[in-house]
TrEMBL record:
The protein's Enzyme Commission number: 3.2.2.31
Cofactor(s), names only, from the UniProt record: [4Fe-4S] cluster
Principal EC category: hydrolase
Annotated ranges, domain HhH-GPD: 45-193
SUPFAM superfamilies given in the database record: DNA-glycosylase, Nudix
Signal peptide start and end residues: none
Source organism: Novosphingobium mangrovi (ex Hu et al. 2023)
Annotated function: Adenine glycosylase active on G-A mispairs. MutY also corrects error-prone DNA synthesis past GO lesions which are due to the oxidatively damaged form of guanine: 7,8-dihydro-8-oxoguanine (8-oxo-dGTP).
Gene3D superfamilies: Helix-hairpin-Helix base-excision DNA repair enzymes (C-terminal), Hypothetical protein, domain 2, Nucleoside Triphosphate Pyrophosphohydrolase
Name of this chain's protein: Adenine DNA glycosylase
SMART domains: ENDO3c (SM00478)
Catalytic activity: Hydrolyzes free adenine bases from 7,8-dihydro-8-oxoguanine:adenine mismatched double-stranded DNA, leaving an apurinic site
Annotated keywords: 4Fe-4S, DNA damage, DNA repair, Glycosidase, Hydrolase, Iron, Iron-sulfur, Metal-binding
Cofactor binding summary note: Binds 1 [4Fe-4S] cluster.
Length: 355
DNA sequence: CAGCCGTGGGT
DNA sequence: TACCCAAGGCT
């Protein structure tokens, strides 16, 4: 057959058959589809998150909760703690809500893209990906990799995000009827390893002959993106309060509100930096406080300069409100998000407990 | 529709 | 170093 007459999908799938990445949640090309639970779990974890970061969490979740019904019956705090460090914690809240909806209908995921789309945490991308990868549906899967590859293939000059409708159209055009799941994963592998943001490896690309951006000589120029906003810096305070209870050292932890920054996660008490421009500076309880240094942390839309105060009184305050005394010995099991894990390391180094 | 929502790795 | 960005979803 004349190779020049092969479709984009045929070339890409041939390349995928030879070069597909081996991933814990993926079935090799040509083998039966993996458990929908594992496909769904991995896709949610992979939202805006790198493969390298997800691997460890995927292994932990599937070990702790081998099926969607197992996950559905897990306590909220255990799941949130297991997600700690992976970021975008609304995903974990939606993950549990979704697992419980699926468990309520017998532990079976719906198989159509439209039905999947109604589940919490499944947007246009994830619903299409699960339908195609787990159930073999012909769905049009568009993620950031596909946006980049398609923008270059067709030399789409319109900047993102305005170009999304056109990208979706073009992706629909080249998505095959059969093996749409492999096609989607092939596009992601291509975008991840070949058609990269900077210095794409066009010499290794199976689609280089049909790539308009390649022909233009400067494929890395695409996709054009709208300029992004500058990140402000906020300041805030967090509080480290220890007490010796039953012969063991404990620290006072709180549970953050169910929505907003780090929603639903265990945390150190703080002065409200998340809710406004800066923290209000107030202490949650009677001092005296000893400064223990600062933690710099960058979130998605602002940077935080957090000062840590250690309670220096002989005995802990009595008006602490809602929270729990957490044993220092098990601090790594508390499920603190990264900001507060950093603050805890600072406190322990300062008090000479450990590092 | 644009802002909110984490984190770590690459350059 | 500072910046870019990743298998997005929700409001």
């Amino acid at each position: 057959m004349d190779a020049s007459r092969e479709t984009t999908a045929e070339r890409l799938l041939d390349w995928y058959d030879a070069h597909a990445r081996t991933l814990p949640w993926r079935a090799p090309p040509g083998t039966p589809a993996p458990d929908p639970y594992r496909v769904w779990l991995s896709e949610v974890m992979l939202q805006q998150t790198t493969v390298a970061a997800v691997k460890e969490y995927f292994a932990k979740f599937t070990r702790l909760w081998p099926s969607v019904s197992d996950l559905a019956t897990a306590p909220d705090e255990e799941v949130m703690a297991a997600w700690a460090g992976l970021g975008y914690y609304a995903r974990a809240r939606n993950l549990l809500a979704c697992a419980r909806e699926v468990a309520a209908r017998g532990g079976t995921f719906p198989e159509t893209e439209a039905e999947l789309r109604t589940l919490p945490g499944l947007g246009p991308y994830t619903a299409a990906a699960v339908a195609a990868i787990a159930f073999g549906a012909r769905a049009v899967v568009v993620d950031a990799n596909v946006e980049r590859v398609v923008s270059r293939l067709f030399a789409i000059e319109t900047p993102l995000p305005a170009s999304r409708p056109e990208i979706r159209e073009r992706t629909d055009d080249i998505t095959p009827q059969a093996r749409a799941g492999d096609f989607a994963q092939a596009m992601m592998d291509l975008g991840s390893g070949i058609c990269t943001v900077r210095e794409p490896k066009c010499l290794l690309c199976p689609l280089s002959e049909m790539c308009a951006a390649r022909a233009s000589g400067d494929p890395a120029r695409l996709p054009v993106k709208a300029p992004k906003k500058a990140k402000p810096t906020r300041t805030g305070r967090a509080f480290w309060i220890e007490a010796r209870i039953a012969g063991e050292d404990h620290v006072w932890l709180v549970r953050r509100a169910g929505k907003g920054m780090l929603g639903g996660m265990r945390a150190l008490p703080d002065d409200g930096w998340a809710a406004r421009q800066d923290g209000h500076g107030e202490d949650l309880a009677q001092g005296p406080w000893e400064p223990a240094g600062r933690v710099s942390h960058v979130f998605s839309h602002f940077a935080l300069d957090l000062r840590l105060a250690i309670h220096a009184g002989a005995s802990p305050p009595e008006d602490l409100g809602e929270g729990e005394w957490w044993p220092l010995e098990k601090l790594d099991e508390a499920g603190l998000p990264t900001l507060f894990a950093k603050a805890a390391r600072l406190a322990l180094a300062h008090t000479g407990e450990d590092a």
